[in-house]
Amino acid sequence: MNVLAFDTCFGAVSAAVRWQSAGGQWLLREAYEEMEIGQAERLMPMIASVMQAAGLAFADLDRIAVTRGPGSFTGVRVGVAAARGLALAASLPVVATTSLHLMALRADRLLGERPQSVIVAAADARRGGLYLQAFTAGACDELSPPEVLSPAEAAHRVAGYDAIAVGSGADTLARAAAAGGAGRVEARLAGLQPHAGDLVVLAPALAPAEPVMPLYLRSPDAKPQADAALPRAD
Questions:
Q1: Which one in 54, 109, 119, 136 has a CA-CA gap of 20 to 30 Å to 145?
Q2: CB atoms within 10 A of CB 201
C-alpha cells in the first residue's frame, strides 16, 4: 500500500511517503521541520518535495494519512483541510489518528527497553492545560482517550501507572503527579513532536474515515472582538 502522510498539529510540519518498488522493497521519503507558525505555507511544498523524491504521482497512492488533532487550532485545520482536498482531487481514502498517538509511537521507539509499562503523551495546551493520552508501551494501544486537562486532573488520570511522560507537557505532568501523590511519572523527550514518518507506517492498519474530522478538544485562542462588527448600512 502506497501512502502519503503528513502532520501540522504542534510545533513542526512533516510529510512522508512510503511505497513499494517494482522489486517488492518498501521505500520511504520523509521531511520534517520545526516551526511554531507557517505550517499552512510550508505543508504543500513539503508534500510536493517528498512525492518528487519518491518519483510518485498522486495516482500511484492508495491512501492519505493525517493527524486530526489535538494541537493548535490553525495547525489541525491546515492538516485536515489538506487531506480532504488532496483526497477529493485524487479520489483517495483518508485515514487519521491523533497527534498524541504519533508522539507515543515515536517515544516507544526512541526510548527502547525500559521497565515502565505506560507511555503518556502530554503536550502543552496553553491556558494552563495539557493535552493528554495514555498508551501501553510496545503496542501503543490506547489506555485513555485524548483529553485536555489541568495538570492536577492529568496527574489524577495517570495515578497508579508507572509511566513515562513525553512531550512539551511532560515536565508539568511529572511535577503535578509528585505534588499530588499520584504515583511516579518520569518526564522524558520534552521536545518530542508528532512525525509523519511514523504515521506513514501506521496508516495501512487504520480504517478510512469519511469524512475525517478535526479533533480540537477546545475552542481557539483567537476570538473576534465583541465590538468589532461594522454597523449595517440602511
A1: 109
A2: 17
* 211 cis-preceded (ω within 30 degrees of 0): yes
> For 30-83, how does the pLDDT look when each residue is reduced to its tens digit (9 = 90+)?
999 999 889 999 999 999 999 999 999 999 999 999 999 999 999 999 999 999
pTM, two decimal places? 0.90
Check: CB of residue 195 under 8 Å from CB of residue 18. no
Rg value, the chain, Cα: 19
Mean pLDDT value across the chain: 91
pLDDT exceeds cutoff 70 at 98: yes
Asked whether the beta carbons of 64 and 94 are under 8 A apart, the reply is yes
The torsion region of residue 199 among left (phi > 0), alpha (psi -120 to 50) and beta comes to alpha
- Which position has the grid cell 488532496? 86
- State yes or no: pLDDT of 85 exceeds 60: yes
Cα–Cα distances (Å) from 210 to 69, 95, 104, 143, in that order, read: 16, 9, 25, 25
Please state the domain extents for the chain: 3-98+193-205, 100-188
Q: Specify the DSSP element, H or E, that contains 81.
A: helix 73-90
CA distance 208 to 95: 5
Count of CB atoms situated within 10 Å of the CB of 143? 18
Looking at domain 3-98+193-205, its CATH class is: alpha beta
